[in-house]
Write a structure and sequence with these properties.
The chain has about 230 residues and is α/β, with parallel strands linked by helices. It is built from five helices and eight strands, in the order ββαβαβββαβαβα. The chain has a domain at about 20-100. Helix content is about 30%, strand content about 15%. The strands form four sheets. It has a two-stranded antiparallel sheet with strand order 1-2. It has a two-stranded parallel ribbon with strand order 3-4. It has a two-stranded antiparallel sheet with strand order 5-6. Strand 7 (about 160-165), helix 4 and strand 8 (about 195) form a beta-alpha-beta unit. The model is unreliable at about 205-225 (pLDDT under 50). InterPro entries: AAA_GajA/Old/RecF-like, Bact_Antivir_Def_Nuclease, P-loop_NTPase. It comes from Streptomyces antibioticus. This is ATP-binding protein. GO terms for molecular function: ATP binding.
Length: about 230
């Protein structure tokens, strides 16, 4: 680059241009800068933080409201990356208000942040506790929403039998046990099984109607075919 009008050397500017090829859509090539904000964030995150996944140096990864520009499904992909690849090598702490950034089956890893300070007593400050569904409803709203979404997915996507359990804790325990067994190469729950927390035995009065609506159900008074 030629010198400036004063004869001083001008700084060299380097430009990194990234082209992406999408084989799912006929090999279309696009410039990275033309992609969505969410895609650019996710791509940049993977490029930057994969270095921590592949190093033996111990670090603590702190993320403040990550993935806010991602849609719900992509936030789930981000969460699977954190738990499946980055988390096993490094400690990851992140804050979120999104239900899609919460895995209800990993209940023990969650913490609730309560701002208890008031104008009368600012010294109360902020308190961090384990998540309790009996806590401040506004604080645990994302957890309740994540749990409700997970249950609804089981209800509407399950194509097999229904398994009624008493409460949400049973729902979480069964999913975690199944994930653990699968990770050890053993058999987990059938993915077609829909697990439904019913909230106690008092809500089970309508359960016979589930069988009655099933085409394969047979009344106990209906004669059985001969063997």
């Amino acid at each position: 680059m030629p010198p400036d009008p004063n004869g001083q050397p001008q700084p060299h500017h380097r430009l990194l241009k990234i082209e992406l090829r999408d084989d799912r859509h006929g090999g279309v090539e696009t410039n990275f800068s033309t992609r969505s904000t969410g895609f650019q964030w996710f791509f940049s995150f993977l490029a930057a933080f994969s270095a921590y996944r592949d190093t033996d140096e111990r670090v603590v990864v702190l993320l403040d409201e990550p993935g806010t520009s991602l849609h719900g499904e992509a936030q789930g992909d981000f969460l699977r990356y954190v738990y499946g690849q980055l988390g096993p090598k490094q400690q990851v702490l992140y804050t979120t208000h999104s239900q899609h950034m919460i895995d209800p089956t990993r209940y023990e890893t969650m913490r609730a942040i309560h701002d208890q300070a008031t104008r009368e007593d600012p010294s109360l400050g902020v308190v961090i506790t384990s998540v309790s569904l009996s806590a401040d409803p506004k604080t645990i709203l994302p957890v309740e929403a994540a749990l409700g979404y997970s249950v609804s997915q089981h209800l509407f996507l399950g194509s097999g039998p229904l398994l009624a359990v008493e409460g949400s804790s049973d729902f979480i325990f069964l999913l975690r046990m199944s994930d653990y067994l699968i990770s050890k190469g053993r058999t987990g729950l059938d993915p077609r099984l829909a697990i439904i927390p019913v909230g106690g035995i008092g809500n089970m009065s309508s359960s016979p109607s589930w069988d009655a609506d099933c085409p394969s159900a047979r009344s106990s008074t209906e004669p059985r075919p001969p063997r």
